[in-house]
Amino acid sequence: MTPTRERCQARTRKGERCRNPAGPGGLCALHRRQLEEAAAADSAKPAPPRRRRPAPSPPVDTLQPRPRAGGAPGGRAAAPTPAGGAPEREGSPPGEQEGGAVHTPPAAPSEGDATGGHAPRDEGEPDLGPLGPVVDWAEEALEFLARRLLGEYEVDEFGHDPDLVEHVLAPLLRPLYRHWWRVETSGLEHVPASGPALVVGNHAGTLPFDALMVALALLDEHPAHRSLRMLAADLAFDLPIVAPLARKSGNTLACAEDATRLLEAGELVGVWPEGYKGLGKPYRERYQLQRFGRGGFVEVALRTGAPIVPVAVVGSEEIYPMVANLRRLARLLGFPYFPVTPTFPALGPLGAIPLPSKWLIEFCPPIQTAQLGPDAVLDPMVLFDLTDQVRDTIQQTVHKNLLARRGLFG
Amino acid sequence: MGRRVLVTGAARTTGRRLVGALAEAPEVERVVAVDDFEPREPFPGKVEHLAVDLRSPALVRAVQSAGIDTCVHLGVTAEPRAAGGRVTMKERNVLGTMQLLAAAYHAPDLSRLVLKSTTAVYGAAAGDPAVWTESMSHDTPRHGFGKDAIEVEDYVRSFRRRRPDVAVTVLRLANQVGPTVDNPLTRYFELPVCPTVLGFDPRLQFLHEEDTAEVLLRTILGPAPTGTFNVAGDGVVLLSQAIRIAGKPPLPIPEPLVNRVAELVGRTVDFSPEQVRFLQYGRVADTSAAAEQLGFIPKWSSRHAFEDFAATRLRKLVTEEQVTRAEHEALTVLRRAAGWIAREVPR
Question: In this complex, do B234 and A3 lie within 8 Å of one another by their Cβ atoms?
Fold first, then answer.
């Protein structure tokens, strides 16, 4: 199941490992082509270098922070993203193992590379000044586009597409995280840097933005840039447009089989046991945690011995204050609820803009389950106790942070 | 004494390839190839071709008289058109299997039965687990090939109860691709445009036809493992990705209209409700059991299998060169523009 393909041996012009799957010669299609172009150009004429870009000499260029996905992609690439059924890894197809015995050494493409990333600037080309980063950005965007057009990317068995998350989905959510809700995240040290863990949080706000923000917090701010693999309701996989995005961003169906599989593969799994009960609760019940399902998440944690990390989100309750629920209409449309907020549906699409409440996300100390052993699953009391313990931890942290927050929009 | 193997559905691509390999295997003494039509490429000399329908009594005689020790059932087809309509297809699939198993029940020398099944038995739905293992309970597909395959598997399972001395292996194969294989999905990718269900992008697994033959051969000639095994290439390919690799433009169609539009695009391709669900939700099967118990790891990953299929069979409309060139040109223009701005606009 594990994608056993070799990765491309080249480096991108930013010096990161290229994420594309390698073809013959250990290079991906793009880099192979660039290499060929460079070779052709070299043999034909001495000069005309293809992709030229000013060397990153002007300090303006290099120092400018780039509001891009590349926060620290190096770390993310190192994270065990291509998870899955690890057992059969040794069986990578014989034809694919040439990666090691590549004729072009891995370093070669990045140096003499046609990418020209670090090639000396030729005299005719002007210094782009402040436009440098823009060109860089466009270059990366074009590369991404070409990759998508050629299908040169990889997804795991759940459909997780880190390339798309890094270049499209995360950049779309980041402004919400940083500027709209001004999320402050604490307790990240409680989330393990590697290996399995079950992140359990409160769920509110009509649309599952809280889950997305927790995931983005872990991706951007956790030192190991972990991908949170969330468990979602089956509605998410049945709606057009939403369904593939849900899978590509790393989510999967909330069922014991999927959760177990992810944890066994060493992934960080996110679960929101309140489900629709939490998401679709009226504003007057804000910050009162709903029942935690049947505690299925505890069972999965016990079976796999994964620690449970409770996470408390403050702020999501106010983004769409739900004053009423049109149950009949919801039933007609097949939705679990149909919210009425002060602005929706009264203002139409404008009403879908969430309120800019102030958010606090706090990860709590992990609750270990390994010492209880997998047999503890058989004891309902253990399950109830653990479920309550997790729920209480979250509820208390929510209350604490509510008091700490200076005001709704503070 | 060598092995005596009977293969049903032997004249189709998979069957033909397997029969050829069996005929070359030194431990095989006799190969009986059953199919009611001639293969495109004639069978090798060693093979006895029994040109009968699975439902005919001649089959019973053949199974019993030839001292067959291994029965390989490839005769379950996913091709309503080739079989002469859905009703005939079902009859051939289900009744043919019943006949074959009835004959096998009375075959004294039979010690091994191999059934080629399909991962289509898992169906395709939004509420499915992401990865199917053999033991997970699944909803029964209510239509088409998947339903036939489930019924066939049921018959085979009850056969196993009645003949415990026979090692029964069921191989659930993922969608097969390769230079010669022909099935509804390969024809789908051969369309000039690939109709997809708007807003859905299923995960697919592919199995290269060489690996199909290899896993069958190994199950027939290797140690007899009893049980059910998923067989698929490593990794997962999204439909959108497959269409890109195939170099075709996708044609997203809202779900309610899929059938009507698909009719216009091509009548050779299967757009049954079952297939449309497959194009919405896809499915992925866990192959670790096959790796551990059969010792079989496909040579081709899903992606490589599909790339090989695309390279040998498809005419790409969008090629790598075009995309790279376009990227390069766009970048050149951009850089020139940026250079011009930097030069002309005073800071």
Answer: yes
Q: Classify each residue of B319-333 as buried b or exposed e, where b means 16 or more C-beta atoms within 10 Å of its C-beta.
A: ebeebbeebbebbee
Cα–Cα distances (Å) from A206 to B154, B164, B185, B333, in that order, read: 45, 56, 40, 45
Q: Please provide residue A102's backbone torsions phi and psi, each rounded to the nearest 5 degrees.
A: -65, 145
Lowest mean pLDDT among A74-88, A189-203, B166-180, B240-254: A74-88
Q: Is the Cβ pair A95, B129 closer than 8 Å?
A: no
Give the pLDDT score at B97.
93
What average pLDDT does this structure show over A122-148? Answer: 78
Does the structure show a pLDDT above 70 at B191?
A: yes
Q: Stretch B218-229: mean pLDDT, rounded?
A: 91
Q: Could you give the maximum distance between any two Cα atoms of chain A, in Å?
A: 78
Residue A102 pLDDT exceeds 50: no
- Interface A-B, measured as beta-carbon pairs within 8 A, has a size of 180
For residue B131, what is the enclosing H or E element?
none
Instruction: Enumerate the residues of chain A whose CB falls inside 8 A of the CB of residue B245.
Output: 150-151
Cα A226 to chain center, whole Å?
Answer: 7
- Choosing among 3.30.200.20, 3.40.1130.10, 3.40.50.1820, 1.10.1660.10, the CATH entry for A163-319+354-404 is 3.40.1130.10
* pLDDT tens digits for range B282-311: 999 999 999 999 999 999 999 999 999 999
Contact A228, A250 (CB under 8 A): yes
- Closest Cβ opposite residue B129 in set A242, A244, A253: A253
Residue A362 burial (CB count, 10 A): 21
Number of H helices, E strands in chain B: 14, 13
% of residues, chain B, pLDDT over 90: 55
Q: Kindly tell me if the per-residue pLDDT of B199 is higher than 70.
A: yes
Among candidate residues A174, A110, A171, A112, the one with its CA nearest the CA of residue A141: A171
Cβ contact B338–A131 (<8 Å): yes
Q: Show residues of chain B in contact with A34, CB under 8 Å.
A: 324
- Name the 3-class secondary structure at B179: coil
Looking at the complex, report in whole angstroms how far the Cα of residue A136 sits from the nearest Cα belonging to chain B.
Answer: 10
Question: What mean pLDDT comes out for the span A333-351?
Answer: 90
* Alpha-carbon distance A60 to nearest alpha carbon in chain B (angstroms): 14
Cβ of A150 within 8 Å of Cβ of B327? The answer is: no
Give the residue ranges of DSSP H helices in A122-181.
Answer: 132-150, 162-164, 170-175
Query: Higher pLDDT residue, B250 or A294?
Result: B250
Q: How confident is the model at residue A172 (pLDDT cuts 50, 70, 90)?
A: very high
Q: Cα distance from B280 to chain A (closest Cα, Å)?
A: 9
R_g over Cα of chain B: 23
Taking an 8 Å cut-off on Cβ atoms, the answer to whether B234 and A93 are in contact is yes
Contact A153 B304 (CB under 8 A): no
- Tokens describing residue A52: 């030229």
The whole-number pLDDT of residue A130 equals 75
pTM of the model: 0.81
Cβ atoms < 10 Å from Cβ of A236: 20
Determine, for residues A253 and B303 on separate chains, whether the beta-carbon distance falls below 8 Å.
Answer: no
Which candidate from A149, A157, A159 shows the least CB-CB separation from B323?
A: A149
Residue B92 CB-density burial (10 A; 0-12 exposed, 13-18 middle, 19+ buried): buried
Where exactly are the structural domains of chain A?
1-80+102-124+132-154, 163-319+354-404
Residue A2 burial (C-beta neighbours within 10 Å; 0-12, 13-18, 19+): buried
Instruction: Return the pLDDT at A19.
Output: 54
